[in-house]
Input
Amino acid sequence: MRLRKVHNILIASALICSMAVTPVFAEPSSAREEEAELKEKKKVAQEELDDLQEELNELISKANQLELKLIAKGEEIIQAEKDLEAAEEKKEEQYEAMKLRIKYMYESGSGTATMEKVMTSGDISSMLSQAEYTQQVHEYDRDQLQEYANTVEEIEDLQNTLERERANLEDLEAENEVQQQQINETIDEKSDEISNLDEMIQEAARRAAEEEEAARRAEEARRAAEEAARQAAQNTGGGSSGGGSSSSAPSYSVSTGNTVVDRAYGKMGCPYVWGATGPSTFDCSGLVGYCLTGSYSRIGTTYTFLGWPRVSNPQPGDVCTSATHCGIYIGNGQMIHAPHTGDVVKIGPVPSNMVYVRYPY
Output
């Protein structure tokens, strides 16, 4: 009997020693290492995305400056056209007045009458004075006509220069819009990459957590077995009887929205003109400003509209806008807008790159 007790004690001691070699803490798992690597990749991708967003913001700011310049240039062209029209009218008045004077001179004797006045002036001094006066009259008429002709030519040259400058600005705006589109596409790709990395990180974290939980349970089982072996050794050795310690968007008004849409419909077919705010010609932000307020004045640009409260459930009368264009939403994915030079106010689909905002009445 005593030999059997000794044998049992030896077995319990061997079991305890064999368990002691099991490490208490598991080594870092491959899943946890993978998670760390994926997080580092996400960090790099996020930094690239932030850089792209900063570049896009700079392009949007540049687009706003170009839009303001185009508006100003359009206003200058409108004024030049008015000045040209006024100069043409004044030139016609001057021309008609000169024709009457010439007709009068010829009807009263033309050159012969003038020569008689010179020859009968009395003395050589008076004759020279009379001849000089006649010459001055003719020179005055020519100078006046030339002055108005020069004025018309200057205004026409100014208008041509303004048109060229506007065309250059429109080219720059188009180039800026292409760059924005390219960056937006890159941002979408980078966002997708980050989203995929998030999914992969979550999966790696889940597997790492499972591995760590399995290791924790194995450790608990090892400790429980170790404790059980100690208890068995104590019981086998006739020790103590045992026992152990227990370790917001603004509200929408249907009537207001209908009024905005009605104004937009009322300007269908009006030509697009840079810098125009009505009543018969508009640029895109000029049309939006009129529809929202009923006033032929500018309340902002597309850059302004981007700062208004956004809505996730757009209603008729809300504003569709991007960094380069805007319009009035009329429902069913459609908007009324003034598209570009050479086009008119019309209905068109809302582009996918636009957001919906609501005018803070």
Observations:
- The two ends are 99 Å apart (CA to CA).
